[in-house]
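Researcher: I'd like a candidate sequence for this fold, 225 residues long. If you have to choose between options at a position, lean toward the conservative one.
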């Protein structure tokens, strides 16, 4: 069965002074997921959104799917629990941030969220072989994490294809998310490599009309993928 495509709007590119307005407009335009980038000034050179903001977003949008990407080091039980209890639907983290990857993937699921592992451009995907039974999705970074508006690194699409191949070898069907540089000019190549969740930042929140922006992405996806 073919996997469905999903769009995850990254609020890193939204107008933070009018975040509720931007999220509401994106959801009205049929964006599937709110992508919530958490950065700690340590794992990446930026500082972003805490669980308090997530709780406020969840309160305003109780039915939304909220995808929390933890770019923090170290990962620990408190961080995961705080974001899960604040309203996350999906949580991913980077394997470099802990020696206890299996433990924390299990914890995410125990807290009622979907569990994902995020792979930086230089992180090999082979560790996934030992974690399929704990994973609901894999997030492949197609740029170096930390800032929005970057151009996609072409070589990372090979990693997307590698993740897809590793899953097939193990008879696993899993969602593959890509984050970084997703635009009408790149989305088809991401889908061809095996991705089905597309994090869109400036390609959505940087546009005047969100419905038009998503329609352009859909058109590129259907015409070229």
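Model: Candidate sequence:
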């Amino acid at each position: 069965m073919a996997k469905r495509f999903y769009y995850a709007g990254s609020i890193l590119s939204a107008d933070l002074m009018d975040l509720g307005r931007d999220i509401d407009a994106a959801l009205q335009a049929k964006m599937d997921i709110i992508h919530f980038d958490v950065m700690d000034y340590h794992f990446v050179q930026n500082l972003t959104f805490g669980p308090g903001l997530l709780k406020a977003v969840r309160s305003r949008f109780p039915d939304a799917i909220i995808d929390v990407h933890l770019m923090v080091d170290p990962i620990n039980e408190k961080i995961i629990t705080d974001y899960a209890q604040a309203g996350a639907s999906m949580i991913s983290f980077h394997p470099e941030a802990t020696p206890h990857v299996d433990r924390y993937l299990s914890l995410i699921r125990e807290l009622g969220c979907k569990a994902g592992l995020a792979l930086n451009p230089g992180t090999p995907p082979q560790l996934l072989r030992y974690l399929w039974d704990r994973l609901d999705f894999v997030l492949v970074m197609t740029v170096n994490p930390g800032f929005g508006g970057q151009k996609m690194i072409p070589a990372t699409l090979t990693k997307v294809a590698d993740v897809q191949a590793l899953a097939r070898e193990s008879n696993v069907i899993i969602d593959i998310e890509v984050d970084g540089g997703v635009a009408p000019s790149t989305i088809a190549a991401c889908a061809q490599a095996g991705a089905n969740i597309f994090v869109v930042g400036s390609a959505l929140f940087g546009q005047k009309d969100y419905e038009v922006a998503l329609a352009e992405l859909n058109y590129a996806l259907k015409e070229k993928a």
